[in-house]
Design brief:
11 strands; Purple Acid Phosphatase, chain A, domain 2; 307 residues; alpha/beta; 10 helices; 5-stranded mixed sheet; 2 domains; globular
Length: 307
């Protein structure tokens, strides 16, 4: 009886080894596969359909040369599925068409160094006055509109034009509002999560009535909103039950930054890195300048100092 017990234990060990060997040679494909053989399984491994994207915030309204290029380089190191912004990309606020196009050419040249697809969102600097709106729509509009949406991995992404929503052109405003209502009625039914990108924070002051109108269309349990415009402070909160982020500027002045950045007050250039796993959202705020190149410190330099 004792011999049979030892033999059974040995057989179990052999089979376990064979199974691990098979798992290794068959190439593990999902986080769940890794969890089965890891030293610690993990409390919540990523789902196979996990994806990542980056949200870049304001560049203008006091833009600082070199910072957008820096943000592009850092974003490339993160290898997101795509990149999306929340507006104020050019200085705008002029009626000179040649100058407006020149500003877009400068911005687009920097942005086209991104390795991932980039999605535009209009800020007030981008679409005011009307000549700016006309050029933005021609260059970066979708179907003749400055607002649009798309689906990715069972999540819905809604890019809005807050300047049009709160502007004096009531016909344009209502056109967008009706489109939003139709778009969200579908998204609320079929999407695991809904992300909204809108330049102006809509939940306070004179914009509060517009927020109240939008809030009625939202499923708070599965909605996350990103805005910018303030430049600082960076902040997060639940607004009427909805997860709401107001990002600090990515490449413009942000409170005391860059001369006197203040982490505690949220006054520093930043962007957001978003991971979505089976509809669950994890968001990290990354201060600009923190994602370093792999060869930031070169070995030969270290060896020279050591010798």
């Amino acid at each position: 009886m004792r011999i049979r017990t030892v033999s059974f234990a040995a057989i179990t060990l052999i089979l376990s080894g064979l199974l691990l060997g098979c798992a290794s040679t068959n190439h593990l494909k999902t986080p769940a596969d890794l969890s089965r053989i890891a030293g610690w399984r993990g409390t919540e491994p990523n789902s196979p359909d996990t994806f990542r994207f980056v949200v870049l915030s304001d560049r203008t309204g006091g833009h600082i040369p070199g910072l957008w290029a820096k943000a592009v380089a850092e974003t490339n190191r993160l290898k997101p599925d795509f990149v999306i912004c929340i507006g104020d990309l050019i200085e705008g606020y002029i009626s000179d068409e040649d100058e407006i196009r020149k500003q877009w050419a400068e911005f687009d040249a920097l942005t086209r160094k991104l390795n991932a697809p980039f999605f535009y969102c209009p800020g007030n600097h981008d679409v005011i006055p009307d000549v700016c709106r006309k050029i933005y729509t021609k260059l970066h509009g979708i179907g003749g509109r400055t607002w649009y949406s798309f689906d990715y991995h069972h999540c819905h992404f809604l890019v809005l034009d807050s300047s049009a929503m709160i502007g004096k052109d009531k016909v344009l405003a209502e056109k967008q509002w009706k489109w939003i209502e139709k778009d969200l009625s579908r998204a609320n039914r079929i999407s695991k999560h809904i992300f909204i990108f809108i330049h102006h924070p809509m939940f306070y002051g004179e914009r509060k009535p517009y927020w109240d109108r939008l809030r009625k269309m939202l499923d708070a349990k599965k909605t996350t909103i990103f805005s910018g415009h303030w430049h600082s402070p960076l902040c997060y909160g639940k607004v009427d039950g909805v997860s709401y982020y107001v990002l600090s500027a990515t490449a413009a002045g942000s409170g005391g930054a860059p001369a006197r950045p203040n982490r505690k007050k949220g006054e520093f250039q930043s962007y957001a890195h978003v991971v979505v796993s089976n509809g669950k959202v994890t968001i990290a705020i990354i201060p600009l300048g923190q994602i370093l190149p792999h060869d930031y410190i070169k070995m030969e330099d270290v060896l020279k100092k050591a010798s």
